[in-house]
Write a structure and sequence with these properties.
The protein has two helices and three strands, in the order βαββα. A hairpin with a 2-residue loop joins β2 and β3. The two termini are 24 Å apart. It binds zinc ion (ZN).
Length: 74
């Protein structure tokens, strides 16, 4: 996960799951700072997601709340 000052600066990959200015969390357009998260869309193929910084923080906390208590389970 990386922070960029603009969506243009964050546009460094070949493929994305969403438009480069669309927040994956809230569905609103991003103007200004953006957080990009890269992950595998399929084995060997990385795609990026974009978030408002506050939405990235919210999503991160939700993932921790959901995943941390179950981290030793498969
Ligand atoms: Zn958002």
């Amino acid at each position: 996960m990386s922070y960029f000052k603009t969506t243009k600066e964050a546009d460094q990959l070949v493929a994305y799951f969403t438009d480069t200015d669309l927040c994956f969390e809230c569905g609103c357009r991003i103007e200004g700072g953006v957080v990009r998260y890269d992950g595998y869309a399929e084995p060997g193929k990385i795609k990026g997601l974009f978030f408002h910084p506050a939405c990235a923080a919210l999503l991160g906390q939700r993932l921790i709340c959901d995943g941390f208590p179950k981290r030793h389970q498969n």
